Amino acid sequence: MAVKEIIIINLTRLGDLLQTTPLMAGFKEANPGGKITLVINSSFAEICKGIPFIDDLITFDMRGFRERLVQKKYNLVENFRFLDGLIDTINCKEYDLAMNLTHSPISALITSLVSAKEIRGNTVDGEGHRMIRHHWLRYFFNVIPNRDYNPFHLVDMYLKAGDVMPKKKGLIFEVQDEDGERAEVLLKDRGVKNDGLLFGIHLGASKSDKTWPVSAFAALANMITREFDAKIVLFGSPSETDLGREFETLAERKPVNFIGGTNIGELSALVKRCVLFVSNDTGPLHLATAVGTKVIDIFTANVHFMETGPYGEGHYVVQADIPCVPCAFDVKCNNMVCKDVINPEIIFEVVKESLGRKSLLATAGSPIWNNLQVYRTYFEDDGLLGFYPVVKKPLRKEMLYCILYREVWNTIPGRSNEEQDKTDYKICDALSSLYTLENLSELSLSLYKEINALEELISLAYKGAETAGLLEKEARKDDLNIEKLKAMSDSLESIDDQIKTIGHANPCLRPLIIVFAFSKEALEGDDLLKLTEDTHRIYRDLITRAGCLSTLMKKIMLFFDSITNHVEAYENEKNTEIHSVLPEKEGFHASGNDIAPVMSACPKSFPE
Amino acid sequence: MRILIFNWHEGYIHLLAKTGYQFDIAEVYKGSRFGWIKEFRPVPPGCRLITEDEALKCLVDGEYDKVICQNVDDLLLTYQYNTPIIQLFHTKYSLMTSLLPEDVKIKFREDLTRVLSSIKDITLVFISSSKRTEWGFGGEVILPGIDMSEYNGYQGGIARALIAKNGLTPHSIKNIENVLGGVPCTLLGDCPAAPEAHLPASWDEYKSYLQSHRVYLSMLDDQYDDGYNLSMLEAMATGMPVVSVANATSPLIDGVNGYISQDVTYLRKRLNELMRDQSLAESLGKKARETVIEKFPLETFITNWKRVIGSSKGVTTSSSCTGRMQTVFEKNLSALREVNPQLAESILKHNNETSLKIVDTKTVMPSLKVDNISLHSLYDPIKEARSWFLHYEKDIQEAESISVLGFGLGYHVVELCKNTGKEITVFEPRLDILKTAMGSICLTSILKKIKIVTDENPSISPLGKGGIKGGKKAAILHHKPSVSISREYFEHLITRLKSLERINKGLKILVVSPLFGGSLPIAMYCSSTLKKMGHNVELIDNSRFADALFYAKNITEDKLRYKTLIDYLTAFLSEAVMARCETFRPDLVFALAQAPLTIECLERLRQRSIPTAYWFVEDFRVMDYWKNIAGHYDYFFTIQRGAFFDELKKAGKSNFHYLPLAASSDVHNKVEMTDEEKHYYGSDISFVGAGYYNRRHLFKGLLDYDFKIWGTDWDMNSSLARCLQRSGERIVTEEIVKIFNASRISINLHSSTYHKGINPFGDFVNPRTFEIAGCGAFQLVDRRSEFADLFEEGKEIVVFEDLEDLRKKINHYLNSPEEREMLAENARQKVLKKHTYKHRMTEMLNLLTVSGFQPQAQSVEGEVVEALIGEAGADSELSKYLSRFSDRERITLYDIVKDIETNEGDLSRSETLLLVMNEFTK
């Protein structure tokens, strides 16, 4: 379908808006001459100046509208007309595609009123029930409870939902010339030389939970200013002025404090001038990423680098490596160990690495990494963002499943054996290069149990598919046998219950089941035949995905066995020190399920 | 004495002749027949039949002493001849005017009133009181009487029903057939519509029909007829059972002296039964005959008629007002006495020496001038009343209760009563006006339908009963001249009525309880009662913090420290009330005695314009903390007056009111108990309550009785300990009710901390008095000065003066169970009628309005629906959507969303946008 007109509804904040830019870029590339209409919360309208793909911008003054309702200056009809006018503005043309990337009920209701041939994302059906249309957005909105196993960045999920893949990678924001000039003036006013080395720091975040302590930032700044002949530049919103003051009292050298003193344009230009931007997970960090400044993103509380880390190559993220990270979204932690374990010294190490002064690999094995991990971003072969663990640590099950699921969700049915082999090899390759593969027996045992559960799941899915097939056949008949249909759908319900139980008992398998369950919930319409066809398809999808995961897991098991055997053999021989568990011989051949694992020595597909 | 009558009703004239008077009976056409129908009755001895012409000639010559008119035709024919008239009403006004259009009906009534009041000597006689009420005129009611010697000898051998009635319509014949359902029937009468109907050959034959037929069928319609007529009574007198369709004024009692029901199937069954069972018919008939003997004695009929015919009536011309005033006034007064004896007495005693002046109008009806202001039209007061009614017609239709401001001579009230059956309260502060009205206009038809309020500060129960939330709408109708002559009174009243209307729609009330003690259950009772009355009530139940208070006692022995702790707790609980007020936004904060509200909190409530009321259910002499708080509450209610009121006034307080205690109709009730329970809780005499000083003393004098004491704070070392149940533990309400129910005598001694027995100056009445009474239990209670207004001594309650008197009464009443039961039941009825918490809460809200309480408009939420629809534009989707709320006055976005959620089908664009709006309010 030619998509000439697309409307994107994104009523979220600065960072999320910037993270929509690759989708817009991809759409423009895929649809030459296509037009983009963007609906945003007017509080973030300024950012759109630097986003080049917007043909029509519709702003919704959400704060103003809330005030109208609270202050009761306007009556119900006047308020109604305000909204009615917004919908009229939106619907001044017909769209081929509407994408709502906002999670809120407000956006869902508004989206349902957009006149578009196709709607993707959060909307409501005719009767007002919340619906998420398109499987990738369903994946996105439902992935939250299973974020441990999510291998995709937010931006990539948008791209998949938009079915596009832009050639140019990363977020896009064009700094305006006038803003660049203005930034120079601002810097000059503060006594900063034209070529002065600047380190940007953003102390705040949308929620105080997400902030690394000011004292830690100040200690880091002190290390930087001692080591480099550089200035620290502080950024932030007016509400963060206090944080700036606190920083100033702790910093050895007075920073250039722009907190509350810049607009978005100036901010973009100033951030661009920085050699490095250190920040919590915030909008300005994404702005820095977008203008090409390297960032160090410090993740605490409920934010997760995998979802909202800096979308671009060569950035660093730091996150505590403790079991409770990240927090769930609906909790308030009162013992934020995740902040304590990230100390300024470590960040300073990352600063040095990011500036090419030092390799962190040199410090591998040091106890300073016990509760911490640092990742570097890169784009993988599939075009999607990946996070490369800078410090090699033992493989944890969550990580393994993340890697496996990336394959599962990317699987294209009908892949040839050769292609599959290549994939399998790549995974094993990655595992051995990114993690220290020691003491695998426990992990193997766990995998073994999960493979069994997965087999059970597959057999249930087959049963479901079979029943759904019969249901579909029955629905095709002219003379419907309602009792029969009901009996079959009851039997499906019982199968589904069993499937869900497996999901509860095996959290690592839950993503498969969540996607399955939400796909079923998303079935809509009154056309019985279409419903039965879709139902049938959902079971088949489950079979495919579960089958894919199962095959991968079996291969991984064999791979683990081979390593264990290798190590044992080595120990038996009491040979010398091992640098790699992998044999030097190349090749990794598979024929059917009988895999003969041969490992490669070092990672090839990962950046240095 | 020569009396003229027309031959409309042979049966009735035949009866009249039994008075011994002789009548000239003028023959007229009735229906298809002319003249006296001898088949019905022989011409009574001494009476003669004459022609209408003869009759008129004699009238012109003044030969008659009286004319008895039996309908309006007779009246119009004879009223101009100066012969005294007795106007006899056989028919209901509704039947007579049923076929007339509304305007003709009005004209008819006006003309008739005019004619009647123009006749110098006229007496009105009605054959039943329902007919008098319906016609709305004053006059005698003379019920028919049956000569039992003429009707007797029922056998009922013919298994047929009998109907005697002239002029049946096809419709009524159909109804009869429906009831008969195939039972054979004989129809006696002149009925062209029923070919099988025939007249009996003679009166004797008629009587033989009554004797031989099994059952008489009566089809008298409630709306147009009384529940009996002469034929039916004659049938009953014969000993014949009657089967009748339902009629409120029927002398029949179903299954006793016949069968009566609105259920046709039932009647049909009974008819069939009677056809089968002759002995059943006989036994019912026997009872029917007894009924006639009892209710329709011939002697009374004759005596009354003799009096009416024989009396030389007072001249009642409009020029001689006194004469008419006497009669009308007396009739009105006796009608009023039935519903409001106090007011009747006040009116009677009132000495009218004011500037009132009855004045003539262009019609026969008078008007009234007060200080030169005419209260009614000088042209046509009835017509004016009609337009007054029409002006308010819409309000009246929509209202559930009606308040009329001003009585005047009552023309407008008469008009109102004629057109609505709704609850009507008429406010008139001036007794002189009421007295004049009662003396000038016949008001008997309305006095029983309306409530007249005259007090300076009328204690109006909130309009309507119970004040159900929502929809209680009171129309306030002004009689403008009356309002203008008592302006101040009515202005105050209007404000109060409006407040009451708001109250009836339901207030938001925050009830604040104490932490513990006697006023705690009262707080609960008040809260649940107010809820039941339809108010939105939230209870701050501070009993949850009682443990904290008790625990604080153990923390320190230092009194000052302890006080500090309690002050903090009180401040905390006050803050909780403030916090609740912020979200609940009550119209009233109602606190019970000992409620932990600080003065600072009360002042903050005052600043926020949240009215506060306090029920000080304490003895002001024992608990003197009222001195500190009374002034900080907007309304202060007490259980004592007299000396307490003096003290309050002395302390510069106002806005205090007397509000005695009560019982809870939900809790304090009769209960069923097992024998075991009766044994466990029962005794000859019992007492439930705390061991106060005076009780510890007095009760020692009762140790020789079967005496059980229940409750706390008793001295376990005293001789009373052996009477004490369950070692003096606290007894819960549910058990207390059982104890009251199971005890033969409940002793009720009001507490005192310093009397050795009875407080000789005790005034207020404790809750126990009402509670024991509510349980239907018998109590002996020490004398209190406030009893006078609450219970009738000797009939509802028995009071003791001292120990000796108490013992005497215990001895007496233990041996008089029936007397005990009667007194207890009387007391219980009194509680249910006057002393429940519902009565108190109603009175409290009423008193609030007396003191100027006006619920704030803040509770009115939402926007005016009509205005929104108008603004949305007639054809818009939004206005169409909003019009589904047009039965409401106001709506909020919340209401709309709730509605959308319950709707089925697809969301419209308007609905979706309204849901978006709602999301923004979250």
Q: CATH class of the largest domain in chain A, anyone?
A: Alpha Beta
User: Helical region count of chain A?
Assistant: 21
| Structure summary, number of beta strands of chain A | 18
The number of domains of chain A = 3
Poorly predicted regions of chain B are 313-326, 461-471
Q: What's the N-to-C terminus distance of chain B?
A: 92 Å
Total discrete domains of chain B: 6
Helix content bin of chain A: 40-55%
Structural class of the helices, strands and pairings of chain A? alpha/beta
The helix content of chain B is 40-55%
Strand content of chain A: 5-15%
Mean pLDDT of chain B: 88
Number of E strands of chain B: 34
Report on the structure:
- The complex is a heterodimer of chains A (608) and B (922).
- Chain A is α/β, with parallel strands linked by helices.
- Helix content of chain A is 48%, strand content 15%.
- Chain A folds into 3 domains: 5-162, Glycogen Phosphorylase B (Rossmann fold, 3-Layer(aba) Sandwich); 177-391, Rossmann fold; 407-608, no CATH class.
- Chain A has helices spanning 14-18, 21-30, 62-71, 76-90, 105-112, 135-142, 154-162, 177-189, 214-227, 241-250, 264-273, 283-290, 305-308, 337-340, 344-354, 397-410, 417-434, 441-476, 482-505, 510-521, 528-573; strands spanning 5-10, 35-41, 56-60, 95-100, 116-124, 130-133, 197-202, 230-235, 256-257, 276-280, 295-299, 316-320, 372-379, 385-389, 393-394, 435-436, 589-591, 594-596.
- In chain A, the strands form 4 sheets. In chain A, strands 9-8-7-10-11-12-13-14 form an 8-stranded mixed β-sheet, with helices on both faces. A 6-stranded mixed β-sheet of chain A has the order 3-2-1-4-5-6, sandwiched between helices. A two-stranded parallel ribbon of chain A has the order 15-16.
- In chain A, helix 20 (510-521) runs antiparallel to helix 21 (528-573).
- Chain B is an alpha/beta fold and 922 residues long.
- Chain B folds into 6 domains: 2-141, Rossmann fold; 158-296, Rossmann fold (3-Layer(aba) Sandwich), CATH 3.40.50.2000; 321-504, no CATH class; 507-658, Rossmann fold, CATH 3.40.50.2000; 675-840, Glycogen Phosphorylase B (Rossmann fold), CATH 3.40.50.2000; 861-920, no CATH class.
- Helix content of chain B is 44%, strand content 15%.
- In chain B, the strands form 8 sheets. Chain B has a 7-stranded parallel β-sheet with strand order 5-2-1-6-7-8-9.
- Chain B is globular, with a radius of gyration of 36 Å.
- Residues 313-326 and 461-471 of chain B have low confidence and may be disordered.
- The A-B interface holds A 62, 65-66, 69-70, 75-80, 83-84, 87, 104-106, 109-110, 112-113, 124, 126-128 and B 863, 867-868, 871-872, 878, 893, 900, 904-907, 909-917, 919-921.
